[in-house]
Amino acid sequence: MEVTAEIKREMFWTMLLARRLDERAWMLHRQGKITFHVSGIGHEAAQVGAAFAIRRGYDWVVPYYRDLALMLALGYTPLDFFLGLMGRRGEPGSGARQMPNHWSMRSMNVVSLSSPVSTQTLHAVGIAMGIKMRKEDKVVLTTVGEGGTSQGEWYEAVNWAAIHRLPVVFNVQNNQYAISEPVSLQMAVNSVAEKARGLGLPGVSVDGMDAFACLTAFQKAVEDARAGHGPVLIETCVYRITPHSSDDDDRTYRSREEVEAHKKDDGLLRTRNTLEREGVLTPQAVDAMEERARQIIDEAAAQAEATPYPPGEEGAFPVYAEEVRHA
Amino acid sequence: MPEITLIEAIRQALDEELARDDRVLVIGEDVGKRGGVFRATQGLYEKYGALRVFDSPLAEASIVGVGVGAALYGLRPVCEIQFADFIYPAFNQLISEVARMCYRTNGEWTVPMVIRAPYGGGVGGGLYHSQSVEAFFTHVPGLKVVIPSNPYDAKGLLKSAVRDPNPVLFFEPKKGYRLIRGEVPPGDYTVPIGPAQVSREGHDLSLFAYGMMHHYALEAAVQAAAEGISVEVVDLRTLLPVDRETILASVRKTGKALIVHEDTLTGGYGAEIAAIIASEAFTDLDAPVRRLCGPDVPAVPFSPSMQEWFMLNPERILREIRSLAAY
């Protein structure tokens, strides 16, 4: 598939919007307006590369909590994000029952996730079983961090998909840290992609700061999976520029120099430079995008803040399917 | 009407549900060519194929987790855990995912699925092929827990479970698989999930039981009648949600309550029944609520002598009936 200038600009815009939304969440936390935020800063290029490789709304997505850029690419809105951050009425994924970033968007085949790590990887495999049973050509994209690959359920899921050559793209966003623990305390191999060898599927490691390299890698994996060639493991090497969450203090386990060095090679910056060099973007166009993002974010944040909490009694349901109240 | 065994009733229910609805699939270890280690799926692989009677890898978390994915995709998985004792690897999936999906998505996603597992001792199975695990799950809102005691209910309740829009844990008393026979009409019928059943009317005391212990309770009640003690036996059948009305109506009639389960005493399911009776029928009671349960040891020991020491039987239930009747 040709990556047109228009697609490139759309990819950049999605990354930029995700970054500015994420930064606003940190600001709201500092202001005491929200109680919790878990960040995707540093992951945007890789996520956008994945999102633009699938058929959005046709393929299935089983995400994890850092996937803000991926979710925006799938149609999740800034207002949805702020309603989730603030726990306000009408939050679309859970009716404000879930913590922020625990997405669910059935209209786009995005499945709900919980907080225990890697449980969702098995769900992706079950969805792929359904696709195979119905002889459809859909693909499942599922994501997790590198810490998540220490879980038994992650191995089980990849193993199952490999045995039955199911159409799953397993994306591991290796951001070098699971809260405080570096990769060296999660695995003895040098890259997550190496784990694929023992499980019998292709494993690819790609520079997650390069949105277009990611796009190419995911396009190939999605194409292979769709053609019935089985699952692929794609490790996107990113860097978690922020602390794990708003409750974490990363100064206790890594140096400022390390973080600053990674900021200089950030995916958003790199994409901007690439596109300006290619003439796809001008500095003026980027400025206009920044202004548009600021406006959208200001409006969405204000709208969310003006939205009340759901009535407390709404916590009583729906425990069972019969109790579901459709709007 | 033909008399068949409990296991044949299970097999018939699965066969008929697979035939009725092409969304239904069976997932488990050895359920395919082998037809299940207890033969619950005998002949189904040949009839419905390897995709709908699916031999899973030896990984219980996967059996349930993949089932979740399949259910999210719109299928109706019936997951088999070969022995209830092996359900713990799937505990995370059952608690974090299966039970909470409807609630956490405000009903956007539900997971209609059945998790079948043979439970119970007295079969020479030692610590890890004898356990009763129901109390772990009756504590969890979002799940339904069903335990049939006879072939008619087994077939009818399993069909209801497959058709239920919620996840249903279906525990089968494996000691009764070939021991318990009963009349089962050929063809389709259901037994609703929820209502308990007064399986023998009486007026001196109420005996509440389920599964294998209900089978024994009926035997004990017959012997008690010969001694002039009239025992009302209630087969709870559905443990979650619990049928409070039937329990309370029986206690109000007899004034005495004996709860019998094979699972260990402390924190067992009987405690909930006792609490319901104590809080809502206190003034109707003529005697303290009694519980006759497995001893508080980790699980059933292997040696026949120790197994016998652990297990309840009709004689021990009869002794308790006499004691309570004399109060």
Automatic annotation (TrEMBL), chain A:
Protein name: 2-oxoisovalerate dehydrogenase subunit alpha
CDD domains: TPP_E1_PDC_ADC_BCADC
Keywords: Oxidoreductase, Thiamine pyrophosphate
Residue intervals of the Dehydrogenase E1 component domain: 14-310
Required cofactor(s): thiamine diphosphate
GO molecular function: branched-chain 2-oxo acid dehydrogenase activity
Enzyme Commission number(s): 1.2.4.4
Naturally occurring in which organism (per UniProt): Anaerolinea thermolimosa
UniProtKB/TrEMBL annotation, chain B:
Keywords attached to this entry: Oxidoreductase, Pyruvate, Thiamine pyrophosphate
Alphabetized Gene3D superfamilies for the sequence: 3.40.50.920, 3.40.50.970
Superkingdom to which the source organism belongs: Bacteria
Cofactor requirement: thiamine diphosphate
Xref: CDD domains: TPP_PYR_E1-PDHc-beta_like
Domain Transketolase-like pyrimidine-binding: 4-179
A molecular function (GO) term: oxidoreductase activity
Pfam families the UniProt entry points to: Transket_pyr, Transketolase_C
Protein name: Alpha-ketoacid dehydrogenase subunit beta
Source organism: Anaerolinea thermolimosa
